[in-house]
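Researcher: We plan to redesign the surface later, but first we want a full-length starting point. Tokens attached.
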């Protein structure tokens, strides 16, 4: 009986297919060997997929720090209420951010937009609220014909000429333009609120 010869093209395709399969297997081997991947997880019956890897080998470092609010200063810590300081009842202690250092303590509320307020427990060495907030790097300001005014709070700048906003300073519920004259009083709650400038 006479055997028919396979066409050369078919033989070429069969050889090329075997070569591609071998290259793919080699690539997979190199990939797993090169990345240090381990295939030592038992997934057979009775196993829960626990790894047999050495438990003393350190794993990747994982940060347990919460994402940082961009309106907060770059370094802050949750507040611990100083001994002898009374927290006003409407201030949420679990949202209070401690900033600054010193023996004088007071609360500052910063509202850069509607329905968003950050509460600070400010500790300072300065007598005036403005000096204490500058010392804590919470505010910056400028001298104007009306006196020194707050222009920037926690990195957010109000520009009346450009965006029609300004920072308004409150002592308790009363707005005042005289932040420079305000003396630190732990019984007061101070606020800085960004507001539209009325024409």
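Model: Full-length starting sequence:
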């Amino acid at each position: 009986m006479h055997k028919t010869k396979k066409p050369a093209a078919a033989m070429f395709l069969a050889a090329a297919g075997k070569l591609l399969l071998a290259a793919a297997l080699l690539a997979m081997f190199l990939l797993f060997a090169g990345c240090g991947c381990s295939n030592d997880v038992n997934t057979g019956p009775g196993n829960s997929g626990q790894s047999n890897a050495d438990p003393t080998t350190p794993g990747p470092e994982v940060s347990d720090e919460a994402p940082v609010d961009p309106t907060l200063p770059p370094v802050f810590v949750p507040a611990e209420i100083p001994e002898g300081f009374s927290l006003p009842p409407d201030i949420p202690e679990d949202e209070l951010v401690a900033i600054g250092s010193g023996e004088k303590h007071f609360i500052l509320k910063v509202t850069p937009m509607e329905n968003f307020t950050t509460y600070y427990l400010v500790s300072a060495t300065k007598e005036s609220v403005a000096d204490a907030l500058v010392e804590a790097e919470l505010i910056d300001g400028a001298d104007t014909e009306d006196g020194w005014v707050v222009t920037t709070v926690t990195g957010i700048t109000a520009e009346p000429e450009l965006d029609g906003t300004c920072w308004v300073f409150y002592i308790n519920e009363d707005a005042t333009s005289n932040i420079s004259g305000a003396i630190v009083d732990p019984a007061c709650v101070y606020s800085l609120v960004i507001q539209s400038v009325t024409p």
